[in-house]
Amino acid sequence: MKFKTVVLMCLLFAVSLPATAQDKTAPPPPPKSFTGNFGAGLALTGGNTDTKSFNLSYEVTHDPKKRNIFKSQGLYLRSSASDVTTTDLLRIGVKDDYLLTDRVSVYGAFGYLRDPFKSISYLLNPNGGLGFRIYNTDHISFALNGGAGGVWEKNEGIDVRSSGTLNAGQNFSYKLSDTSKITQNMTGMWKTSEMADALYHFDIALVTSVVKKVDVKIEFMDEYKNRTPFGIKKNDTALIMSLLYKFAS
Asked: What is the distance between the alpha carbons of residues 207 and 229, in angstroms, rounded to a whole number?
């Protein structure tokens, strides 16, 4: 009886070996095609001046590891001092890239901006062109893009104005570690009806993980409009701190 038991245990062990080896050599799970984050930040001060500031943001990327890559991102920023609103900004961007080669793509994009403090009730800018991946590794990426499109801009007290546009952009990302990275973006839009009427955007951010699905983001943003009505200042800057909840599916 003991001999039969030993033989049975040996057979079971032998059968389990291929399954164990197969598990060890099993391919990794496929990458998630949808990734992104939702962000929020809040700041309150009191005393001689009561100030409130909050921001909401999102970023979504659909990358099925094929030729087509879709990205969308948005930011809402609002602040007030002593119950007087001082910032009320909404920016949304959508972009679809189709890779022609590993380094060259054709893209279509759409940008929306609302900034009452620049007297911009809305600014719509559909555009398209070519993108160039100058350098792209797991740790560093650097890309340029350029194209043309159209713009419809509504300022307070002024009728909607439309024009063709020339567009250009630059993106940079550097992975400091498995949990931290630096990102930097810059865009420019020039109206063909008046090239001096241009809109520039610059941002740079440090993103670092605090737990598995939560990041901390510290971002500096600069928005410059070369032509503003009613003597409004051309340049606006913001330092934004927020928590990001990451998702993938």
From this structure: 36
Torsion angle of alpha carbons 177, 77, 38, 94, nearest 10°?
-90
In a domain, residue 24? The reply is no
The average pLDDT across 129-139 equals: 95
Closest Cα partner for 150 from 185, 108, 117, 115?
108
pLDDT at residue 216, rounded to an integer: 97
Mean pLDDT of 131-159: 96
Range of the domain at 180: 32-248
Rounded CA separation 75/39 (Å)? 9
Mean pLDDT of 56-80: 94
Is 14 among the domain residues? no
On whether residue 93 sits in a domain, the answer given is: yes
Please state the pTM of the whole predicted model: 0.85
Nearest to 218 by CA among 179, 177, 183, 178: 183
Q: In whole angstroms, what is the distance from residue 145 CA to residue 169 CA?
A: 5
CA-nearest of 151, 122, 115, 90 to 232 is: 115
